[in-house]
Amino acid sequence: MKPVVIGTTLAAAVALCPTTSAFGSVSGSPQPVPHAKAVANAQSNAAQAATSLGLGSDEALVVKDVIVDANGAKHIRYNRTYKGLKVIGGDFVSHADKAGKVTSVTWNRGLQKMASLTTAPRISKSTALAAGKKNAAAKKSTAGTAKGDLVVYAASGKPTLAYEVVTRGSQKDGTPSELHTFVDAATGATLGSRERIETGTGDGVHVGNVTLDTTKNASGQFQLKDSHGNYTTDTHSQGNESTGSGPAGDLYVGADDSWGNGTAGKTSESPAVDAHYGATKTFEYYKNVQGRNGIWNDGRGAPSRVHFGSSGAYQNAFWDGTQMSYGDGSGGTHPLTAIDVAGHEMSHGVTENTAGLDYSGDAGGLNEATSDIFGTNVEWYAANAEDPGDYLIGEEIDINGDGSPLRYMDKPSKDGGSKDCWSSTLGNLDPHYSSGPLNHWFFMAAEGSGAKTINGVAYDSPTCAGTPAVTGIGRDKAAKIWYKTLSTYLTSGSNYAAARNGAVKSAKDLYGATSAECKGVEAAFTAISVVAGTEKCDGGTTPPTGDNLLTNPGFESGAVSWTGTSGPITNNSGRPAHAGSWKMWLGGNGSTANENESQQVAVPATGTPKLSYWIRTDTSESGSRVYDSAKVQVINGSTTSTLATYSNVGTNATYTQKTFDLSAYKGKTITVKFSATEDSSLQTSFVVDDVSVTAS
Hints:
Layout: H1 12-15, H2 34-44, H3 46-52, E1 59-68, E2 74-82, E3 85-88, E4 92-96, E5 102-107, H4 125-138, E6 142-153, E7 160-170, E8 176-184, E9 190-195, E10 198-200, E11 215-216, E12 222-223, E13 231-238, E14 250-251, E15 253-254, H5 270-288, E16 303-308, E17 317-319, E18 324-327, H6 339-352, H7 361-382, E19 392-393, E20 407-408, H8 431-434, H9 436-447, E21 450-454, E22 457-461, H10 475-489, H11 496-511, H12 516-526, E23 563-564, E24 569-570, E25 583-587, E26 593-602, E27 609-619, E28 629-636, E29 639-647, E30 656-661, E31 669-678, E32 684-695
Parallel strand pairs: 3-6, 13-16, 16-18
Antiparallel strand pairs: 1-2, 2-3, 2-4, 4-5, 6-7, 7-8, 8-9, 10-17, 11-12, 12-15, 13-14, 17-18, 19-20, 21-22, 23-26, 24-25, 25-32, 26-31, 27-30, 27-32, 28-29, 28-31
């Protein structure tokens, strides 16, 4: 067993003083959430949008999500109702330019205006419930309680009045089940079904000696609750293993900040360490890399329950829409709390709150692969020495008992069930197997095809049907493209063809239509036998950075390409951006803090290289004494030169552009660094935006 002795509290200092905004002034309440405002604004205009899009008078729109691009383009994701009934499969995404003009719409399965439909059922609710239980039995699930409501089912063809029958019980492998069966309200026929509980199986592993983000409660005790709001509880071997229901559990607290001793068991703290670490790293990955503020994109953390299951030996982990639950595994000594398990399962929550991909057909495979993709990226992001990044799914679980992983991204068919290539029959498979082609696509898009060794692991990724070899564009870029695809261009019923179109469109949006990134995405989809669709990498616009040598210079892709402390790069509305909604907000804490962000750049040997940026400063300090300060520096090898210094004295709450000559660094690779230091009280904010290094 690997030792797990946990120490440092990252958020203890915050817990000892009044609540502070990590990005703004001292306050007892959080800053307004821009995402929530965008959703509320879109909802207030939903009726007008329905009319503009040509929907019928009986159709109403419910805004699920709003994504705003760096160039101001807006993508509004809608669900809809018909005469007050939920329309299953009626979701779509409206795409508008900066001025608000709708440029295109991604309709789910082409469903636009609905034809007139009766809302009076011909069969009774009890008949529908019986049909739902029968469907559960056919899927070898034991059905417990059942309920049913009228809906319009449009997920597989012509919109039809149906009962949505929800049966709760257990799946054939003993995991919880929440099966949604759609029963024709006129004939009693089963139109379709989908499983709500998404699970992962195997024996969990520990993460070794790690630093945890913990806080203190009002009594001064340490607790497994991080600065994002993720927290971990002990269910004390309670919980219904068939239905997934059970107690919330008791929050882990302690007099010191040392957790676990590296041993498993029904009362051990070590599984809680693994779960808490995994939840924190997953949250941080989405926030710092993808610019998503948690599963729900509203800053909330998610709870994790450990020691779940009345047997004390529950061999599963699952996401149920609100929380993670981890069993203790075989004999109660193999907790399912690995990093990739946390990243995979919590990514189901992200999918649920973006595209909402179904769990059947092609969409089911895309759903599972999405969790594999981001679970893998969380593992790489965590950079944990005991579980280093790789392209193997569940490699630490040893579910097969022979050291082999659960799934392989380079060649999915090595697991004996997954497919490497797309085909018209792929959607008939279990989603864990139909996920294979998209996992294969991601590996090739990130690393390229063929044999190679990465981080000490040997891979060999073949293309399908003799298609050309693929050159990788890099893991981070491939993940960025897939996240944008998921959050912007997919709907609940998307298939592999829609995935290709969406990914190519995302690559064009992010990197330009003629970029190597776009062409790499295309090549990787061709290599899994998904043929070209309506989106192609030809013509179009160039990447938005122009002649700027910096990547993500306006921070509209979050912290991508910048290195430093977590937090300063934000879309928090407490301070305005110079353009767009993201900026680098250094300081503003009102407590002792040291923050920095930097990016390496190669300065050309010709031309007149210059560094420019826009800066806005404000303070709660007074007088002429310097308490808080910020620096703009250039690091050239072992030499650090300061170009500018700012402080709480002489602040300017209006954005001002500053420009510096970098001719002294021609032909050299330098690091441009922004940093700030605050004292123990009264905030000073140094807000930087639209940074550029050019060589005219």
